[in-house]
Specification:
By secondary structure, this protein is mainly alpha-helical. The chain contains 11 helices and no strands.
């Protein structure tokens, strides 16, 4: 048996899937804004931490899709309103923290607690993705389109597809974090930069929360 035959997903289908994922990632969305904002606030480490958080959320959503949990949630419409409400409240809380303590984000990253603060960015980024019902719907609708029942093991195929999506997503968002880091370096010499970074992050989080609440 060839190496291609050992793959749960046909290589041609996998290539098409990877291209589709990349094209979808190029469309502006909340994850893109989230990563760039944290790259500006923390530098390249913050952008990378945010991208890893998104990757972790992608793996969780892949597992939920492969196990059928996502389909069960989709059958109970109020679940999406609950997830959306929780996500909006979480984003508003983050916005309040950023507004209330301007400059604290970059100050924390500059101290010895840098590792802990970057871990918080990853967790924040992961929760931001998981508390978005559109992300769950996306995985539920998008991944199965590239699975082939004729090759057997649908769950294995979904896990492979989700793994490929995660790798592409992390690499793409890490690159966006690098763009934010470039802005961070430009602002590093300005005394009020840290305060305005926090204000900008707070405004972005509020806009993301409103977008989530108004989405249907």
């Amino acid at each position: 048996m060839t190496a291609a035959g050992l793959l749960p997903v046909d290589p041609a289908t996998l290539s098409l899937f990877a291209l589709a994922v990349l094209l979808l990632l190029l469309s502006p969305g909340p994850n893109m804004a989230f990563v760039i904002a944290h790259g500006i606030a923390y530098g390249w480490r913050g952008g990378l931490a945010a991208s890893l958080g998104i990757g972790a959320a992608d793996l969780v959503l892949t597992a939920l899709t492969a196990l059928g949990v996502a389909a069960l949630v989709a059958q109970w419409p109020p679940a999406f309103d609950l997830i959306r409400g929780a996500g909006a409240l979480y984003l508003l809380w983050l916005a309040w923290q950023a507004w209330r303590h301007p400059g604290r984000l970059t100050a924390q990253a500059a101290r010895d607690g840098r590792r802990a603060s970057l871990l918080a960015v990853s967790l924040r980024s992961m929760l931001n993705s998981l508390l978005n019902p559109k992300a769950l719907l996306f995985f539920l609708v998008f991944l199965p389109q590239f699975a082939d029942a004729g090759r057997g093991g649908i769950a294995r195929q979904l896990l492979l597809l989700g793994g490929v999506l995660t790798l592409i997503s992390v690499a793409f968002h890490a690159a966006l974090g690098g763009i934010g880091a470039a802005v961070h370096r430009l602002l590093a010499g300005h005394a009020r930069a840290a305060r305005w970074q926090s204000r900008g992050l707070a405004l972005l989080l509020v806009l993301l929360a409103l977008r989530l609440l108004w989405s249907r």
